[in-house]
Amino acid sequence: MSGSERVMVFGAGGFLGSAICRLLAERGIEHRGFTRSTGDPHRRFDLASGHCYALDTQLGAYKPTVIVNAAAATHGDVLELTRGNVVAVQSLLSSMNGHASNARFVQIGSAAEYGGAPRGTSQDEQAELRPGAAYGFTKLAGSELVLRAQRNGADAVVLRSFNITGPGSPPSTLFGRVLRQLGTTDTIQLGSLEAWRDYVDVRDVAEAVLAVATAEGKLPPVFNVGSGKATLARDAINKLIEVSGTRTKIVEGEAHAGHAGSPADAVAWQQADTSLISKHLGWSSKIPLDQSLTDTWTARPRE
After folding, report:
1. Three-state SS across 126-172?
2. What is the mean pLDDT of the segment spanning 226-246?
3. CA 167, CA 219: separation in Å to the nearest integer?
4. Could you report the per-residue pLDDT of 119-144, keeping only the tens digit for each?
5. Which pTM value belongs to this model?
6. Which of 130, 126, 85 lies closest to 112, judged by CA?
7. Which of 196, 167, 297 has its CA nearest to residue 239?
8. DSSP state of 268
9. Phi (first) and psi of residue 62, to 5 degrees
10. Average model confidence (pLDDT) for the chain?
11. With 50 as the cut, is the pLDDT of residue 264 above it?
12. What is the per-residue pLDDT across 281-301, written as a single tens digit (0 to 9) for each?
């Protein structure tokens, strides 16, 4: 890259998007954030429903060298997921093709695109893609649009993030939901916690995005972003309760889609192979899960 990046971040008001913007600010990298909801300091733009001319104007005026799409629909019906994870991606790629064709496009994908794997194994970027629910299918469709653009000459990369944790975890995640109930009730009702997930801190994921955004030369089309270690969801929740110092009891229900507390498909095991991103960019996760959970509790929302 040029060393004088101008980065546009879509989904800047979200969990990961806000972490990316904070890191860009800390590193002194010029950036502009966009979010679906109103709120300073980010500009409002809805990729799924906004007028293409308005998006064209934004890209044409700012002339970004990097475009990061951290916007996504994680819940809702098939229509909502399709709009947020497929239509939005196509809108951004189309506008980039016409008004910022030299920019690097960084798409935040999801481990849900892979689906499950045999217990004890790691999924690399060549793993079979077999999502089992609408979220995974729509995220995969969005990634496929990006990869098609890449094959047609665009500088585009998909970062498939595994389960993101850390300070600011929203209530749509397992940890965010439990976090908001700890200390307010004696028991918390959850689904099955039998799933093994690869948890990676949001600050580490932001570092991976920045590494891709500033890397020189052509990159592989897909990178996994995870810790490389699967943890039983039950153990992770028990650790969060321990950190909180509360005596909250967890009551588990039956397994169902999203039972590990995220929009990921209901699969028994996921663990990332991150050797590719380590080889090309020198990135690896730095924040252990225990530290991530401690920081999550410390930064919890307070009344």
Report:
1. CCCCCCCCHHHHHHHHHHHHHHHHHHCCCEEEEEEECEEECCCCCCC
2. 97
3. 30
4. 999 999 999 999 989 999 999 999 99
5. 0.94
6. 130
7. 297
8. S
9. -85, -30
10. 93
11. no
12. 999 999 999 999 999 999 998
State how far the Cα of 274 lies from the Cα of 297, in Å rounded to an integer: 27
Residue 12 has pLDDT above 60, yes or no: yes
Tell me which DSSP letter residue 269 carries.
Answer: B
Question: How many Å apart are CA 91 and CA 88, to the nearest integer?
Answer: 5
In this structure, are residues 108 and 159 in contact, taking their beta carbons and an 8 Å threshold? yes
Kindly state the tokens that stand for 237. 């929740």
The set of residues, in sequence order, having a beta carbon less than 8 Å from that of 69 and lying 6+ positions away, is 10, 11, 47, 88, 89, 92, 105, 106, 107, 108
What b-and-e string marks burial along 201-240, b requiring 16 or more CB atoms within 10 Å of the CB? Answer: bbbbbbbbbbbbbbbeeebeebbbbbbbbbbebbebbebb
The identity of residue 12, as a single letter, is A
Beta strands at 222-225 and 6-10: parallel, antiparallel or unpaired: unpaired
The alpha carbon torsion through 72, 76, 82, 86 (nearest 10 deg) reads: 10
Q: What local confidence, expressed as pLDDT, does residue 158 receive?
A: 98
Q: What size, in residues, is the chain?
A: 303
Q: Residue 156 burial (CB < 10 Å; 0-12/13-18/19+)? A: buried
Alpha carbon of 155 to those of 158, 171, 261: distances in Å? Answer: 11, 34, 34
User: Is there a contact between 243 and 182 (Cβ–Cβ < 8 Å)?
Assistant: no
pLDDT tens track for 74-86: 999 999 999 999 9
